[in-house]
Amino acid sequence: MPTVHSLNELLHPEFAGPYLSFYQPTHPQHPDNKQDPIVYRNLLKQAEESLAAQHSNEVVAKLMAPLQELASDFNFWNHTAHGLAIFRADGYFRVMHLQRHTHPIAVVADSFHVKPLLRIVQSADRFHVLCLTRNHVRLFEGNRDGLAEVQLHQDVPRDVGAVIGDDLPEPVSRIRSVPGLGAGAGAEVRHGHGGKDDLVDQQTERFFRAVDREFTRHHSQQAQHPLVLAGLPENQAVFRAISQNSHLLEQGIDANPDALSNVELRTQAWRVVEPLYLQRLAGFVDRFHAARADQQASADLSDVAVAAVGGRVNVLLVDADQQIPGRLDPETGAIERAQRELGVGDDLLDDLAEQVLRSGGEVVMVPAERMPVDSGLAAIYRF
Q1: Cα–Cα distance for residue pair 136/161, rounded to 1 Å
Q2: Do the Cβ atoms of 157 and 138 come closer than 8 Å?
Q3: pLDDT for the residue numbered 195
Q4: Domains contained in the chain, CATH given
């Protein structure tokens, strides 16, 4: 599933082009999914023809090889979600499952085509779910539409053995013989020094403390997502008592996360996150109105375009349901409106969103009914 990290990876590639981007709808169930590989092969054909017009046969063959191999992966096409995004360059190959349908498109260009990802990754409804047991942790990331497990950073311990070791130490006990007790020369009296339950509690706390420290450092501080904790109440109590993560929400999911399906986990997590999401959107709207009163914000497309190219946009609110056909000049900020809809690759709102992201600004996709203006965008400036 796409994340903020993977989007930044695509916006700032560390490898040479050309860059190939593919999007298409997929179907989780049979027999609807039978058409998905056919759509994919048609997209590959379009990309190959575009590549062949500008590059040698050797370059084309090298770039297309793993893409063609995926087309024949029967197991892959039987385990998809509602959409697919695939990115390819020399030394780079990334496949992302999407929880929303997307229009089929193949783009060969001097940068990756990330516009369809913006409405998924840059929405204010993103959240993390940390699934916690005494023995292991798992991380999920998603929004109101879907939830998917993501890989934890290598420094985050995934199980208690990574912190404690594989074997639980036995309780320490001493045995001494006391004369005059019992039938024998002496009876054994055992004095326990730390029961096994006490040792397990200590190990659990050590494990949770390590998870909290590294997860906060490598995930929460990077993504800034609200964190929903899923676990049995007794495990949540231990984790919350030691946690230093400011993104951890007070309300969690009081259940064994291993017993919940992805759908159940998402439903319960969204129930926790939705009030915060609505509050966050209202906060952005209030900030926009206050900044606009001080001449530090705008909803005018031409003004925002110039500001975005100049790196002046701090926060850009974008109407998630609107498109404005046209093109943005990334050098001057000049806009060229189109008289008709040109397709997914020619939306001025998406062009501006990419420009703001590349300059370190924040883009928030907002439902139409919660936008403060009807122009399609609202920008808060840095200066």
Answers
A1: 9
A2: no
A3: 58
A4: 4-121 (3.30.960.10), 127-166+199-276 (3.30.420.60), 295-381 (3.30.1330.30)
